[in-house]
């Protein structure tokens, strides 16, 4: 054919070598670009070009095995296809590559290779016209008297019409193909049909090499006939379905068309999109979500499975179907049963139990009540997480825990947008998918330990989740449709509210979970911890017994905490030691038992004395349980970790006991002071924060201004305590950072003791903020501090007058064992901290208001 008329391709073309198939004129093909030559072509020609000609490249089939590709340019096939790059997509996973969408224009012959690097460029000769195709009548006249070309064209057209007629015309691509048969010039049909039917690359290569139109028809017609015969055979071997005897579905995608039949009773495997559509319509979604799913489903039907977006869309629809849009569980509203269950699961925690029962009571009266947003705040190990799990059991709801500690990306809450590679929904939507209902109990654990980074602020993302006025239309970035969270019962846990943003804290109902008293810990240990550890270690109560006195020793001498985690670990250590003895006892033979008749008490085995005349065989193995006493406890757990050191450390002036609050609970804190000759400097050590340093200066200033009143002197007997004197104030445990205003009264007491030479009472601990005028201001964490004082054996606690109301939260048994002194000024503090009052007071023997053994 001549190329003297019509649109001309450039005479010089960059060449793209591909192993993935043969591009024929009139067809479209996706080509993956991974080799160095092809990558250079894309970067330097396609991505940098600005004209239409820069997007036209030559596609040459590479017949060499890709496994044996080298850097040398292989021998080029003489015939190629000029193609228009209509799309370029790049990716870095799993390695850098491009994907090109190329439409074939015409054939060309390589006339001369002009250069090989960085990508080959050749001078080419155009072989096909791009327009002014001849009509069928002109084709017949050009074929000569016999009209062989016209006859071949007509036979090919009839075969193509027969093939398309055997397909289901309801499939859009089949109907479009039928219209193309009538509209396309006959000379383009061989290339178009050959690129669509099942053919091998060698067969397509023969069609590409057929430059003559007559030869092209002869090469393609047998391929078309073979496809028709195969389809006829397929129809005969498959059983037709009712009302669809000749229905054959064709799923078409360039460059190949695949034919498949629906088998009888194989709906789910035969047509996934139909099954997915039924699931979408049966998911009871809200109308907006249903519209989005149907739109995505329509796109999915038109999308070839080889496209990367196909899997993303399918995963999205699968998630939408699996979400519990309308599935929920029925709440158990029996208040009596709920009370029994909560009491059996947890000892104490009356405030939390009361709040759950209140929710159940209101749910009985109003069925459409929104789920509350609760926040349990307390030290570690007090049972915040386990209470959340018990609440789910009480209500009969599903339970899901979301750990937020260290989360610093808002996508963990809201999800990723689907435009990103590897996008996924947030933890809220994933949790709903996991539990399968829309009214579970969600535990947001460690909400006070959320982070912040360049990826956003997850605490701000939680504002919508935990707002009852907004979470009925929570929008995850991945879903991009609203989901109703109003029926979810959210429970957050935290050790402290100090690190929770105020806006987030305002949306939650805060319930303080304080530490346990020693009596409560003993009860918890014997109700829950010891049975649980026995079960975990394969022991029974008949093999191991831990008396209450031993449990009290463990609590007071081996643990000092607000919760019970360390207590449980100590009990576990005892169980392991006993398990070794039990296992050894099971493996002891009778002869060995004779040698081991004498068992040391430190092994914790209490055995009856062998009566006279009883043989050693009858004495092994022992049947009595292993009982842990204080001697056995020391053998297993070692020396005491904590001792009652308060009285021992208050043997010199200048030492007092303060009370501090930490996220781990209350703690006692020793404050020490000493003085030496100097220039009146005040030294502070112990890793103190700015607030505590200011409190120390306040205490020093108040004492100097009242030195005459309290008869305080310096080393040389002067009335100014700092004259010629340096003061050193130290807080032990120097590795721990300390800050806060509540140590003010303790510093005043320490310095007053130092300057007066009098000892502070050894059974007194105190807390309170001070002012420059000597007033005592209220502080927080009173319950935790009082419990810490009780654990340390303190008998008198000095607190601010305005904190007297907080004493109601302290258990009655603790209040009975302590004397509480409520002070409104520093005069009353000093009067209560020293035996017989403090010198210089108008009535030193009269104590301030004492709430004695409430």
Q: Write out the strand line-up for the largest beta sheet, numbering strands in chain order.
A: 1-3-4-5-6
Strand content: 15-25%
Shape: elongated
- Overall mean pLDDT: 82
Structural class: alpha/beta
Radius of gyration: 43 Å
What's the β-strand tally?
27
Share in helix: 25-40%
Describe the fold and architecture.
The chain starts with 11 loop residues before the first strand and ends with a strand. Helix 3 (148-165) packs antiparallel against helix 4 and helix 10 packs antiparallel against helix 11 (308-322). The chain is elongated. Helix 28 (812-817) links the parallel strand 25 and strand 26. Strands 1-3-4-5-6 form a 5-stranded mixed barrel. The protein is an alpha/beta fold and 854 residues long. Helix content is 38%, strand content 18%. Residues 13-228 form the Lon N-terminal domain. One of its GO terms (biological process) is protein processing. ATP binds at residues 378-385.
């Amino acid at each position: 054919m001549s190329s003297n008329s019509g649109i001309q391709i450039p005479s010089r073309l960059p060449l793209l070598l591909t192993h993935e198939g043969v591009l024929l004129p009139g067809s479209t093909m996706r080509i993956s670009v991974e080799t160095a030559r092809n990558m250079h072509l894309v970067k330097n020609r396609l991505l940098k070009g600005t004209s239409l000609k820069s997007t036209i490249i030559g596609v040459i089939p590479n017949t060499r095995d890709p496994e044996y590709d080298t850097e040398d340019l292989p021998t080029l096939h003489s015939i190629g296809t000029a193609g228009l790059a209509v799309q370029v997509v790049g990716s870095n996973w799993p390695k850098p590559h491009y994907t090109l969408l190329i439409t074939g224009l015409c054939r060309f012959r390589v006339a001369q290779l002009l250069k090989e690097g960085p990508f080959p460029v050749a001078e080419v000769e155009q072989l096909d016209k791009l327009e002014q195709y001849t009509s069928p009548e002109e084709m017949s006249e050009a074929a000569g008297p016999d009209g062989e070309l016209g006859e071949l064209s007509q036979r090919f057209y009839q075969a193509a019409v027969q093939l398309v007629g055997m397909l289901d015309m309801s499939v859009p691509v089949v109907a479009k193909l039928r219209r193309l048969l009538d509209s396309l010039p006959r000379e383009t049909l061989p290339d178009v049909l050959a690129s669509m039917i099942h053919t091998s690359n060698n067969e397509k290569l023969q069609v590409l090499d057929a430059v003559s139109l007559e030869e092209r028809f002869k090469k393609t017609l047998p391929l078309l006939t073979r496809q028709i015969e195969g389809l006829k055979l397929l129809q005969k071997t498959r059983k037709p379905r009712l009302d669809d005897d000749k229905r054959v579905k064709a799923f078409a995608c360039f460059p190949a068309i695949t034919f498949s039949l629906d088998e009888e009773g194989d709906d789910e495997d035969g047509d996934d999109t139909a099954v997915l559509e039924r699931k979408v319509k049966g998911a009871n979604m809200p109308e907006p979500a249903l519209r989005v799913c149907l739109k995505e489903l329509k796109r999915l039907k038109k999308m070839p499975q080889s496209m990367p977006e196909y899997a993303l869309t399918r995963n999205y629809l699968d998630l939408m179907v699996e979400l519990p849009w309308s599935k929920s569980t029925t709440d158990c509203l029996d208040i009596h049963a709920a009370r029994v269950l909560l009491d059996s699961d947890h000892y104490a925690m009356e405030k939390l139990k009361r709040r759950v029962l209140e929710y159940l009571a209101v749910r009985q009266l109003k069925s459409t009540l929104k789920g509350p947003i609760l926040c349990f705040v307390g030290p570690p190990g007090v049972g915040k997480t386990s209470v959340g799990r018990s609440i789910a059991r009480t209500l009969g709801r599903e339970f899901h825990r979301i750990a937020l500690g260290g989360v610093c990306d808002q996508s963990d809450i809201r999800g990723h947008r689907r435009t990103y590679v590897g996008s996924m929904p947030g933890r809220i939507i994933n949790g709903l998918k996991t539990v399968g209902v829309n009214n579970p109990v969600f535990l947001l654990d460690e909400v006070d330990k959320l982070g912040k980074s360049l990826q956003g602020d997850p605490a701000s993302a939680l504002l919508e989740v935990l707002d009852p006025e907004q979470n009925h239309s929570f929008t995850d970035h991945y879903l991009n449709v609203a989901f109703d969270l109003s029926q979810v019962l959210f429970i957050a846990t935290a050790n402290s509210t100090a690190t929770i943003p105020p806006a987030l804290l305002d949306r939650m109902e805060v319930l303080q979970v304080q530490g346990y008293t020693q009596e409560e810990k003993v009860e918890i240990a014997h109700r829950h911890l010891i049975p649980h550890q026995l079960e975990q270690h394969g022991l029974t109560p008949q093999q191991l017994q831990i008396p209450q006195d031993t449990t009290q020793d463990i609590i007071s001498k081996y643990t000092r905490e607000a919760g019970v985690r360390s207590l449980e670990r100590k009990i576990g250590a005892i169980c392991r030691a006993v398990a070794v003895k039990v296992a050894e006892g099971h493996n002891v033979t009778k002869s060995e038992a004779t040698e081991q008749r004498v068992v040391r008490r430190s092994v914790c085995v209490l055995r009856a004395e062998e009566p006279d005349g009883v043989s050693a065989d009858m004495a092994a193995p022992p049947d009595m349980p292993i009982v842990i006493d204080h001697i056995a406890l020391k053998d297993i757990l070692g020396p005491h970790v904590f001792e009652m050191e308060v009285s021992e450390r208050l043997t010199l002036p200048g030492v007092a006991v303060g009370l501090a609050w930490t996220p781990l609970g209350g703690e006692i804190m020793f404050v020490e002071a000493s003085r030496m000759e100097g220039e009146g400097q005040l030294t502070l050590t112990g890793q103190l924060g700015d607030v505590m340093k200011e409190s120390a200066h306040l205490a020093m200033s108040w004492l100097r201004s009242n030195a005459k009143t309290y008869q305080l002197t310096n080393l040389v007997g002067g009335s100014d305590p700092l004259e010629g004197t340096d003061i050193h104030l130290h807080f032990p445990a120097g590795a721990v950072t300390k800050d806060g205003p509540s140590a003010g009264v303790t510093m005043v007491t320490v310095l007053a003791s130092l300057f007066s030479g009098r000892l502070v009472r050894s059974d007194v601990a105190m807390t309170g903020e001070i002012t420059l005028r000597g007033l005592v201001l209220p502080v927080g964490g009173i319950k935790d501090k009082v419990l810490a004082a009780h654990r340390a054996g303190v008998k008198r606690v000095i607190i601010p007058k305005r904190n007297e109301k907080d004493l109601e939260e302290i258990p009655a048994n603790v209040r009975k064992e302590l004397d509480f002194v409520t002070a409104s000024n520093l005069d009353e503090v000093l009067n209560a901290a020293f035996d017989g009052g403090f010198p210089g007071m108008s009535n030193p023997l009269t104590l301030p208001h004492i709430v004695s053994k409430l």
